[in-house]
Specification:
mainly alpha
Length: 76
């Protein structure tokens, strides 16, 4: 019988590698998407209000919130 369809045990090494791979992909995704979303909101507000400071502030806020989410999800 083939092992291809076999799911790994929750405590096995293969399961640990998959959890690490999921975290390795999701952490940069959180950071980039947070910066993109809040930077985009800052850019839209800059264009609407005629200012130029909200875009970098939005990027920093998005970065901060993303890092908080990463810490909350994986840091404990």
């Amino acid at each position: 019988m083939s092992e291809e369809g076999h799911r790994p045990d929750p405590g096995s090494d293969e399961s640990d590698h998959r959890n690490f791979a999921n975290a390795a992909w999701s952490i940069p995704s959180y950071v980039l998407s947070g910066m993109a979303v809040y930077g985009g909101l800052g850019w839209l507000l800059d264009r609407w209000l005629g200012t130029s400071a909200l875009f970098p502030i939005g990027i920093l806020v998005g970065l901060g919130l993303a890092l908080y989410l990463v810490y909350h999800r994986y840091g404990r």
